[in-house]
Design a protein that fits this description.
Radius of gyration: 19 Å
Order of helices and strands: EEHEEHHEEHEEHHEHEHHHH
Largest sheet: 6 strands, mixed
Number of helices: 11
Strand order of the largest sheet: 1-2-3-5-7-10
Shape: globular
Distance between the termini: 37 Å
Helix content: 40-55%
Amino acid sequence: DILIHDRDARGVHTLVLNQPRSFNVLSEAMMARLKQSIEAVAADPGARVVVIGAQGRAFCAGHDLKEMRARPELSYYQSLFSTCSRLMLSIRHLEVPVVARVQGLATAAGCQLVAQCDLAVAVQEASFGVNGIDVGLFCATPGVALSRNMLPKQAMEMLLTGDFISAEEACSRGLVNRVVPAAALDAEVAALVERILGKPREAIAMGKALFYRQLETGMESAYQLAGQTMACNMAHPVAQEGVQAFIEKRKPAW
């Protein structure tokens, strides 16, 4: 299978890109399988977290250039990039957090995939780039996600030059949350997942939706949206129990 999809008893879905020989490119087939798995998570009321990882030396090398070159038609390219954009948006629209487990190279749409995830943990050896410009193709769609992770001039420099940045630089720019030795990657991802699992799903779902929605609005509208979300969250039983547990100095029964 080009993509391995597992779900554990706690509701943690693990999606593993499994085409290491082709550097886990986002071929049409890979995008279809990944979108199918994201839709399965969305339909699972017990889902809590998604971890996206990969096999081999590369996390994801972006689109399949050979596949793209074989069909030099504007209509095909429009459809292809629309499919990729819908895939990326499906990650944003998921109610549960999505964590990228980055064990290697992430380039072009692969870097976009990391940027689109809510959180990311990378190994020290990982590197990141949006280097389509090296073959005459400005990474426009990866730039959408990239520019929402780091400062505009930082993103633009990567897009204009095609230069790669290290995992440490990616962390300092906000593309990934943490950088660890390869031997510690799984433990670091597991620790992050455990912290999320300890929080109520309902509050996280409301919070994730609001977080991205408010980023796209003006400040006054953002505060209105945030205030309404907090009011709905506070009225929900999970917050009522959490506050009562705090008052009674006990752990909440979620």
